[in-house]
Design goal:
Layout (H helix, E strand, L loop, with lengths): L9 H12 L11 H6 L3 E5 L8 H14 L2 E5 L23 H4 L2 H7 L12 H7 L18
Parallel strand pairs: 1-2
Length: 148
C-alpha cells in the first residue's frame, strides 16, 4: 500500500512497517531527500557506485548492517528496480527480504563467512569508561572564564 510520509517521521514509519506488515519497505522518493536523510543511519549501497551491487558486497553489507543493528539501504535512484538479478543462494538469498526468514539458521549460515571481521561500534560512553577513574567530568575540562 503506497502512502506519503513526512521526512521527520520516516525512521519511525520504517521501523513500524517491518513489525506491522512483516515485510521490508520499498521507499520511492523522487526528491532524493529521504535517501540523503537515511544514508547516515545505515549501510548505503548505490547502483551508480561501481562494485556496490556485486554479490559479495551485498552479502558483506547485509552482515555489517545486522552486526551493527543498522539498516541496509539499496539505492536504485530512478532506475528500474530489478532485485531478482542480485539474489544468489550462497551470497544474498531471497530470504533476506523476509524478516521471518532472515534470522533462520539456514539463511544466516549462507551469509556468514569465517573471514568476516567486524569491529563493534565505538561509542563515547565506551571511550569515557577507558579514561582514568572510569568517569570524566567534561564540565571541568577548562578553566572558568572571567567576566569583567
Amino acid at each position: 500500500m503506497a502512502r506519503s510520509i513526512k521526512l521527520r517521521d520516516i525512521t519511525a514509519e520504517l521501523n513500524d512497517c517491518v513489525y506491522t506488515t512483516g515485510k521490508y519497505p520499498l521507499l520511492v522518493d523522487p526528491t532524493g531527500q529521504a535517501i540523503q536523510f537515511l544514508k547516515y543511519r545505515g549501510r548505503h549501497l548505490s547502483v551508480f557506485k561501481k562494485g556496490d551491487f556485486e554479490k559479495e558486497t551485498l552479502r558483506k553489507a547485509l552482515v555489517q548492517a545486522l552486526h551493527n543493528g543498522a539498516w541496509l539501504l539499496l539505492d536504485f535512484d530512478k532506475l528500474a528496480c530489478d532485485l531478482q538479478q542480485h539474489f544468489d543462494k550462497d551470497d544474498f538469498p531471497e530470504a533476506v527480504l523476509s524478516p521471518q526468514e532472515l534470522f533462520l539458521e539456514e539463511t544466516c549460515d549462507s551469509l556468514l563467512r569465517d573471514s568476516d571481521e567486524f569491529a563493534a561500534k565505538v561509542t563515547y560512553e565506551h571511550q569515557a569508561a577507558l579514561a582514568d577513574g572510569a568517569f570524566q567530568d567534561r564540565t571541568k575540562c577548562h578553566a572558568p572564564e572571567r567576566v569583567a
